[in-house]
Amino acid sequence: MILRILGWRDIPVPESVRERVPACPDLDLLELWAERAVRATTAEDLFAGE
């Protein structure tokens, strides 16, 4: 869903992000990334502060 949100918002998603998001086993982290995807201006914004 995170990748779809970015796509719906016409935010380019590099291959590194396409690989990292589905590989994440941490549901809390995925929820955080989903929240960030709604406000992100770049795909890399998902990982801000890490």
TrEMBL record:
Write down the superkingdom of origin: Bacteria
Protein name as catalogued: Uncharacterized protein
